Amino acid sequence: MSLRGIALSAGLAFIAPTLLYAADDTVPDKGRRRLTALFESAAATASEGTVRITSNKKDIALGTIVSKDGYILTKGTELLAKANKLKPSLTAELRDGSTFDIEVKGYSPATDLMLLKVDAEVLKPVEFTASKVIEPGDWVAVTGFKDRTLRGEPNTIESIAVGVLSAPARNLYMQEALVENGNRGYLGIVFEFSGDANNTRIEDIKNESAKRAGLKKGDQIVGVNEADVTSRQDIFQVMNETRPGQLLEVKIKRKVKAGDDEELTYKFNTIPYAIMDRGAMQNTMGGQLSDRRTGFPKVIQHDTRLSPKECGGPLVDLEGRVIGINIARAGRVETWALPAEVVAKSLKELQDGKHPFPKAETAVKTSTKPEAPKEKSGPSDR
Amino acid sequence: MNLRIGVIGLSLACAGWCSAADGPVWAIDRATSPDSAEELKAIQGLVKTLQKKAQPATVALLLGNDEERRSGVSCGSGVIVSEDGLVLTAAHVIMRPNEQVVFKLANGASVNGVTLGLNPGTDGGMARITDKAPSGYPGAKDGKWPFVETAPSKDLKKGQWIVSLGHPGGPKPDRPPPVRVGRYISYDKAGFGQRNDLLNTDATLVGGDSGGPLFTLDGKCVGIHSEIGDNLDINRHVPMEKFKTDWDSMLRGNVVFRDERERERATKVAMNVMFDDTVNDAVKIEEVTADGVADKAGSKAGDVIKTVNGKPVNSPDEIRAMLPSFKPGDKLKLDVQRDDEKLTLTVRLTARSRK
Asked: What is the ipTM, given to two decimal places?
């Protein structure tokens, strides 16, 4: 069936933000803390195998130790300042507090796994178990760190978040299968539907800022910022690098009664989510989501509450088995992990040198670039 | 909030009363957290048993486009509560009675159905699957649907463990309704910030989950998802008691209103008749407006309406309760008793005129 313009928030309305949940010392808060204490022994090995990745001393991700001689896997996009360029001063800190410089050995854009090497021996690697050993409803735990930056103290790996497996390993489809920056800016424009992916003509403008600037239905977009665009994929590639609220300069062609098309330029701001996807707004209610939170080969879903910088570490079950690596805070209800099977395959490719980093600059449309959105059966803003 | 802390002292000892053979039992209404790995496992066991039964009964609802729904297909969730396919959902998911619905099952298959009544005040709503359960569908038997039992929410204790199912973000291929586990927090009465009584739990929900089921650990549905707030701990559900109050009315496809004013405001059509309100056990027409739609249909003063579109009606208020479900131009098929005669009249509803 057609998922044309899926209006996801036939889901939920939301209450006025001024109605705050009163902080409460009693159960369930206290109860949750006791719950995580019960996981200490199950998560012990996974804790030993978890590292903190920092950039200029700020935590940006967790990492999973995968070999005794210093190989670590982490969530690559958190270490990238932009495609092919790393954030500055990257360091790995072990549980015992020792720190190491990081060398990047490879990056797989398909899984978002980055292989790091530190100059250390006697590390305690995790061992992976196939994710099918657990089912929806089974407890899972995530090794994490205690964020003490507000107190001016060093952060430490010592704490754990707990949840349940919500859905077993699955493939992703449609929007969820796109490799893109989920926190990018959007045009807020509905394009004409046609079988032609090169059609950049405007059908409807939902972005108020664009309307006020003077953009009109029927305008054909030919440029966004410095880039000339001739297709929706071109537009998507530019938009993927923008942020919400960013000012854009958009060049359009407009038909005039007699003679040639007019070429005009308008300036307006991007909006935070695709206008057809009202559920996307609700997804951000309650915490930040990972920039790269779609486009993985397979994911397992759990309801543990993680922040984006707490991804990259191991996911463990009540028996202490490591069944995956957390790869994204994907929504209000979900954290995603790459199942052990996917991690193992990607790790082998990385170790075999199949995904060198940085990627050679020569190819223009390489696999490190975001994939083109598939032409869907309806107008869309992607 | 995150579930964080360092070690504060493990207790792995089993309570004295549990035997090595059966392990500790987790009381369904226990409102504290587990004290041992065994108790953790007990909760886990209950959750998994629950989800195996409840997942096949949790459906997604897909409703078509119309002006009120803005653009596109509208998605929500629901839960099957009877073997003949009665579904509980949220009022704001179905919006109106008598609309076509496509239900998506936990295994991705689609079946057809129709919306029934709703109460916009409580946010409760009903729908019905009209297709038979496919053979081989988990829990299905001879075309009958797997279903869950309902229970009142009033005895829920703060801290009691609950489970939520639904289709966050709409139904997704290869993804059965995801399970979320949390704790019951409070019963919030209508007031500032919300128009109706709602349960609050900390199992997170998001758009698409509306209409889905909230369970206690014994698999009984005590609420239906309705709203979220900015904070991850604000997840709200229609208490099951609200459904029970309106059950018969919703089953008949009526919209239940808080009061007369709300009902009148929601009524967009007119029949151009006056009912005899002194008669309360029959629908007797007192006056037919000349050249009105009832007049054009052949209705006369004194007619007693027995059924409307096949549904028996026993009082003028029952007809009034049905009218908000219709749009101008919709036809009403009336079985009418005129003295000794039985007649069938078709009235084409007109738009209600505002004074």
From this structure: 0.82
